[in-house]
Amino acid sequence: MLKSLNLRGAPAFDGAGETTIGPLKPVNFLFGSNGSGKTTISRALADPGQFAGTTLTWNWTTRPLGIKVYNSDYVKATLQLAANLPGVFLLGEESADVRAEIDALTGPVGSIATEQKRFDELDGSLKSKVSEIAKAHEGLKAVAWSNRTKVPAELSKMFVGYNNSQEKLLKRLLEIAAAHPNSIETFDALKAEASAVLDDDATPLAELPLGPRLNLERTPGYELFATPVVGSSDVRLSPLIQQLQNADWVEHGRDYLSQADGRCPFCQQSVPADLETQLDRYFDMRYSQQIAQLKSFQIEVQNWADSWRGYLDDLPTRVSVPGHLDVERLQTARLQLESALERLMKSIELKLAGPSSVITLKPLTSEVGALAALVILANQSIKSFNLRLQNRGSARKAFLDRSWIEFARGLLAKELASFEGEIKALEAGRSGIQARVNAASETLQSNKTRLRELQSKVTSSKPIIEKINQLLDSAGFHSFRLKESTLLDDGYSLERENGDIASDTLSEGERTFITFLYYAQSLQGAPQASDEPNELLAVVDDPISSLDSEVLYTVTTLIRRIVAGIAEGTGRVRQLLVLTHNAHFHKEVTYEGRNKTSGWQFGVIRKRSGTSSEFLLYEKNPIRTAYHSMWEEVRRVSKDSSASAISVQNIVRRILETYFKVLGGVDDSAIIEKFEGEDRIVCQALFSWVNAGSHSIFDALEYSENPSTVDTNLRVFRQIFEAHGQDGHYLMMMGLERTASPDLVVAEAPVVADTPIDQL
Question: Does residue 614 sit in the same domain as residue 635?
Fold first, then answer.
């Protein structure tokens, strides 16, 4: 069903904005004066493309309807073919079995309708599932788009070609995710390669040198740490010194002996004359050489340690491209080496302080090896960098793919995993529904194909000729007829009794009526094209330009049949728009009676000076006759007697004149005779108004008006209807329910025309 017509750039609606005709219901009656834009609306429905920017909005739960428009353009186009009108195809009488099968296929609960409903429901479910899938994609797309900024700047070239399109970015992300379920490296690792692959100005890097080498075990003096360094054993003092193992103590005491003036620096006794000679002989040349070796060993190790510190300070500055050397691990390994060096130097100092002691030196192999391993790894990375630099062209695509893998499976790992879990279930549901939609579509198309086969065998336009000619006779058109065309199979021609083609000699009323009859019958005929929808939106624009009452009644009846078919779900028409400027036709065609009007809607197209027409919607019919409007005024005043104390008598007079004198032929004196006392005076005054025909409320009155007299007039006004058995009409027009009235005067009712008020 059509939800709305959105007009833009159309005559009468050419304002800066958009005019929406809607929301529409199954049955829509639109009233507007000439020039307000009714024909523009019908033309836009016939072909929205003729007004740039104009669109139709359909209810998404139903399929779009076929649109058949009756307007002045339709009249002109139809009568140009008056000699060979295309047939309106209806069933002939050839085959009862075929008719039954066609009825089964086309009925309101027939195969096509049932399958169409089933297909629409499944298609709606499919669209809902597709919408859920799109929503999941939108969520991932937004996350991916916002996380681009978290990718290192060195890798930003991976987004070249994708920064202006979120859709392209999402497509690339999903392609990478489908091909690579796991992350294989980190952005930090990729950054080390980025310049070689992505930087056009990058140059080859020099490899890093290894650290200073020193083999402690082969350094002179190393073996002395494992043995005591003592004096000669050939001296008289040697046995005692070796027994006491105090050679280091004695060696340090020699420095004090030379300053003690012949006394022992310890016991203060006179020292033997040869004591100093004995000590010199004990600490002989060999001892001095060993001590010198230990000191040389200390200097060698210290120089080696200083070289390592300088090397480690300089090493990070040798790498021009970050990422090749693991600086964090380098710092840890350096701390471990420096701690080991500190322990080694303390051990050397202990040996020199006590040469006779045995010291075990711990090798620095593991600490030096750890640093060397880091440099070797860095050089391997540099070699790879230089190699990639040599093969930059072929390596670029592979590198960008690896960067995308880390973006998908590393940076967006959580969001992507959630999406993949959700989309898997949604896609499975969509596939299942799609299979059912395909099956329903095949069944529906098969039924439609079968229907066309059956219609091609038994359809005929002959019954339409008889129907339209009968309608022409009933409306008093006898000067032309519909006849079978001699040139077009199952077609018609409009001919006079003498055989002349009637299109050029038809009056305006004849042209309007015959084309409307043709249009009305086309709504009931079977679809003539394979792609023509079976269900229709009928648009009727002013079908009674200058028609007499008989034709108006016929047109109204045909439209009411369409309305009834919409309510019952029969026929091809599922929605109706009726546009008119004729208040009388509008009143007739919108007469509600006892019909259900829940699917009805009323609209007014209001022409405004100097600007676009406006469209207003109403649940209740806003177009009333003058008689109806007078009763509305009486209802209003009856609720508040002070609201209109001046005009109500004139309104009452016109109602009495219309209903009793014009339609009923009632003698006013007979009515007055039924009242007594003050009410008789009021009644006589009211009918004096009628007789005088005055529109001034003060003529021939014997009392002045005020709210209380208005109440009296309204009371007598009601009693006039009750006294003549017309209280039902009074109650209907006042919107009241029937109740017992103590003021009711029972009398013989006069003969009053039994005419429904909506036909007055």
Answer: no
